[in-house]
Automatic annotation (TrEMBL):
Protein name: Major facilitator superfamily (MFS) profile domain-containing protein
Subcellular localization: Membrane
Regions that span the bilayer: 34-58, 78-97, 104-123, 129-149, 161-181, 193-213, 238-260, 272-290, 302-320, 326-345, 366-385, 397-417
Protein's organism: Hypocrea atroviridis (strain ATCC 20476 / IMI 206040)
Name of one Pfam family that matches: MFS_1
Gene Ontology MF, one: transmembrane transporter activity
Superkingdom of the organism of origin: Eukaryota
Family from the record: Belongs to the major facilitator superfamily. Monocarboxylate porter (TC 2.A.1.13) family.
Keywords: Membrane, Transmembrane, Transmembrane helix, Transport
GO cellular component, one term: membrane
Membrane topology field: Multi-pass membrane protein
Region (Disordered): 1-22
Keyword Transport: yes
Amino acid sequence: MDNKSESCVRSTPVHGLDDKDNDSESFTDGGLRAWLVVLGAFFGLFVSFGWTNCVGVFQEYYETHQLASLSPGTVSWIPSLSIFTIFIAGPFVGHLFDHYGPKTLLLFGTTIHVFGLMMASVSSKYYQFILSQSICSPIGAAMVLYPSFSCTTTWFQRKCALAMGIVASGSSLGGVILPIMVNRLIPSVGFGWTMRICAFLMLGLLVITNLTVRSRLRPQPKNYDAGALIKSFKDVPFLLTAFAGFFYSMGMFVPITFLVTYGRSVGMSPQLAGYLVSMFNGASGVGRILPGYIADKVGNFNVSLCAACLSTTLVFALWLPSHSNAATMAFASLFGFSSGTYTAISPALVAQISDIHEIGLRSGTMYAFMSVAALTGSPVGGALITAANGSYWKLQIFTGVMLATGSMFYGASRLYLAKGKLWAKV
């Protein structure tokens, strides 16, 4: 691979743009301004994807409280639609980001995200949770998530995977702290005030995000249409990477959604089962920073492929055959580590195979493609639990097959970029 391919961002010159924007020397790869962007983006991920990582807590709570009369598959549409909304908003947010930059998006995203959570705090019916927690709040979260990632990639090149890993670890920290907050606050102050307290916390952190997250590049308005989205899939590396992300997402979000209910099914106490989400996200934080540092040394696609294979192995070798509390906690932690690597490095993969001025569109297109998997994976898992009379073995096999398919596409994209070389840095 040549130097362009090994860098985190493809710096191909674009006609009509200042060449210094594309010059690798213009990437600061550090400095106060760049690291302030990382700090703000870290908090942006904490309140956006970090909140989404709490889906397992709400799946279990709604099943046993407000929505106890509904099946697990029906309830799972709340978290799965939330993830779908965040992902499907990607192309639209990316388009707006390329046109106007991050400032307006972050401001509107903050307002909509917090408003959605406030509305969820007064919800009691199924459709109300769908509107507030699955549509309104995720739209705002998407307006925070994508600018946070995209702005970070404009400041870093050699250290891109490390910077992206630090930013992505914000969602892991959110996934550790927020479930514990929810579990501890609900018995004390009730569901409504728990949601409001979380919303006020996010508002405070988003003030920091709004003040610090900026792009190094000027906005470059372009007249994108549906054809521009389709054009991205004509690029073979992008197509293979998109399919890898699709199948991996189809499998990854199933354990996240049902971790708590699975823990209860194998005899865990409600308190211990509630901590599985925090265990998952705590390990995920390590999986987002350490492999990011390694990826800058050995290649983003190499690390992603290893992480995807590890996730597949954990499902078939640990989660499926074991049913003890210890095995469940071990799986939650190890799967959190491997899937955290996927979450952190995915934006770096897109940046590596994309022109820097198309990162907003390309990243959004990738996540929109993955949104279908995020939407359908958990409801399919819930249906498989029902079909197996409450057992989880069908869900586990489905998860493993999806992850294995994603791993094969990661392998194909890696081999394509390496031109068939097995030991190249890609």
